[in-house]
Every structure is written in structure tokens, then in C-alpha cells.
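pinned: reference chain
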Amino acid sequence: MPTLSDAPRLDEIKHKYSSVLGDVFHAMDRTKVPVKHEAKKVFFVALREAYLMWNESKIDKLERNMKAAGMTEEKIKKERYHSPALYHHCVDRYVPRSKELYIRVRAVYAVMGHLKESKT
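pinned: its C-alpha cells
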């Protein structure tokens, strides 16, 4: 059975366009995490950030406007983490090319895949 350490080398991964690979929501939804797991929120935020890249110029503009409206840097970070709906409505996102997507998603699993729930 293949494991995370059996990953292909990066030079073996080819960029390949395919219009029928499934959508990002269902790709993220394949991973099942127990409801009460302490790292569930962090894991899915990290996975969302790995699958979807933000338009950085629009992020900068939105955050400048938030600061101009009186929000602190810390409050802006909390807003993006806990309730990102404003970001979703104001900033477009895209899925990176296959090699970059692989690296980003694999990093999430490499860092967080071993975490066990402390209560069980």
C-alpha cells in the first residue's frame, strides 16, 4: 500500500490539463476528520488555502480598505481565518497548476496528517 513517503519526485509530475477532474469542494470533502478533533478547523483552513490561491492584488486592496475602516492587523487575520465569507465575495480564487497544487496539498498532509485526537 503506498504511503505519503512514497511520493513521486517533482520532476516526474507533468502538468496535464483535464476538464473532468472533479471540483475542489469534493476533493477536500474526501478527507474525513472526526467532528470533535481539535485540529479539524486548522486542517480544513490549511487545505482550503492549499487548493485555492487568492488574487493577491485584490487581497491587498481589501485589507487596505479594512484597515482604513479601523480594523487592526490581528482582527483582519482572525476575520480571514474564522469567517472568510467577506474574502470569498470580494476576492477571486483559482486552483494552481498540477505540480504546484500537488506540493501545496501534500505539505498539508505531511504536516497535519499524523495528528491524533488527544481524547481517544
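why pinned: Residues 37-52+96-120 form one domain. The helical segments are 24-29, 40-51, 56-68, 73-82, 85-90, 98-112.
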